[in-house]
Amino acid sequence: MQRTVTTLRPFRYNTTSELVNTLVISSFCAFPWLVKRTNLLLETSIKLIGAEATCFYLDKTAGKVFSAGETNEDLQRVLTRLSKQQLGAIIDYCAEGETTEEGLDKNTRAIIDSVKTAAAHKYPAVAVKLTAISNTAVLARLNEVQKAAGSVYSNNMFQNLSKEGLLEFGLSLWEVEQVHRVFERARLIARHCSSLGVDMMVDAEQTFYQYAIDAIVTALQREFNSNHAVVSNTVQCYLKDSVQKITDYIEYSNTHNLATGIKLVRGAYLNEEKDLAAFMKYESPIWSSKSMSDHAYDENLKKLLYSYQVGNKLCVATHNEQSVLIAQEAIEQMKIDRKYGGVTFGQLLGMKAMMSESLASSGFATQKYVPYGPVQKLMPYLVRRAAEQSEVVKEIHAQVRQVLDEFKLRSKSVYYSPN
C-alpha cells in the first residue's frame, strides 16, 4: 500500500505472551498435513482429556489468535487493542446451531449487546448469521419456498408478512409463525444498529439457506436503507451467480431509491458446496477455478465502486492484494473519502496483520472480523481459520517473520511496554 512495510509494526500492541502464542499457532499452520488432521486431533483430545479440557486449551491457543475469546471482557480487550492501531471491528457473536426458541432469543440479545459494544469503537459493525437466530430446519424450508417463488426483488415472501400473504406461498400456520419470529429477531437487531450508528452485515451462508437469507435482508434493506445503508448483505463471489446478483441488486436499489449495502467476500463453504453438489448430482454453484472466483470478485468490486453514491456502504472483505489495489484506485478516482466515505476494508482477526496495518496507516477505514462467544460454538470457526492459513504457506512464513521482528525490536528496549 502507500507506506513501506518496514515502518509498520502490526504486533506493537500485543503482549509478549500473545506474540509467543501467535508464533506457535502460525508455525502449526505452516504444516498443511497437520492442519488437515485437526478434527482427528480434537476428537483424540476429547477422548483422552475430555471435551471441557480440550475446549480450554483450544481457547487459550488458537482462540487467542483468531477470536476475541468467550466473554464481553475478552472482547473489550481486543477492541481496545485494535483501536490503538486505528482499526475498527466487525463483531461476530458465534452461536449457530441453536434449536430452541429460548436459545434463539438469547442469541438475539447477545448480538444486540455486541451492537452496543461496537458503537463505542471505530468503524462499528456487527456480523449476523441468520442461523444463529433461526431454527436451521425452518430456514432451509423457507429457502425452498423462496427459491420456488423466484426473485427476492419481485416476489419476496418477507415483504408482505400478513398471514394470508404468507399462506399463499404454501406455508403452514406453524411456518408462518416461524417466519414472523425470525424476521422480528432480525428486525430488532437492525433497529438497534440504526439507532446506534452500527453497520449490520448479514453473513452469507450455504446455498441451501441463501435464498431465504437474501429475502430477509432485502426486506430489511427496504425498511432501513432509505437514506444511508444500515443493513448490508454478503455476496460470495465464488458462486457463479454473483455477478448477476450484484447487477440485479444495484438495479433494484436504484429503482427504490435505496442506498446499497454489500460485504463482498470470496466465499467460506467451498468444499461443502462442491461435495453436496456431487452427492446430490447437480451442477456445482462454485466457479471451477480460483482464478474465475478472483475475476468475479474484482468485477463485482469495480461495479460497486464505480456506481458509488453517497450513503452506500461497501466492505471490501479480502486478503487479496490485487483486489485491495483495485479498490484503492477506484476510491481515489471516485473521490470517496478514505475514512468516512462508506467503504471499508476487512480482514480476519489473526490473519493479514501487515495488510490491515498498512491500510489503516494510509488512512483507509479498516476493520478486523472479530468472532467471540462460547468456545464450543467457536470450534468450527477456529478449525476453518487454521485450514485457511495452511493454504497460504508464504503468508504464514511472512507472519512468523513479522512476529520475530517485533521480538527483536523489543529486545533492544529493556523497558518496552505494549500499552
Descriptive account of the structure:
The chain is of the alpha/beta class. Helix content is 56%, strand content 10%. It has helices at 16-29, 32-35, 38-49, 51-60, 62-66, 72-84, 101-118, 136-149, 163-167, 173-196, 207-224, 242-255, 270-280, 290-305, 321-333, 353-361, 375-390, 393-411, and strands at residues 88-93, 125-128, 199-202, 231-236, 261-265, 313-317, 343-348, 366-372. It has an eight-stranded parallel barrel, surrounded by eight helices. The longest helix is centred in the middle third of the chain and has 24 residues, at 173-196. The model has no long low-confidence stretch (mean pLDDT 91).
Largest sheet: 8 strands, parallel, barrel
Low confidence ranges: none
Enumerate the strands of the largest sheet in spatial order, edge to edge or round the barrel: 1-2-3-4-5-6-7-8
> How much β-strand is present in the residues?
5-15%
Q: H/E order of the elements? A: HHHHHHEHEHHHEHEHEHHEHEHEHH
What is the distance, rounded to the nearest whole angstrom, between the alpha carbons of the first and last residues?
26 Å
The beta-strand count equals: 8
User: Helical element count?
Assistant: 18
Looking at the chains present, what oligomeric state does this protein adopt?
Answer: single chain
Rounded to the nearest angstrom, the radius of gyration is: 21 Å
- The whole-number mean of residue pLDDT values reads 91
The portion of residues assigned to helices is 55-70%
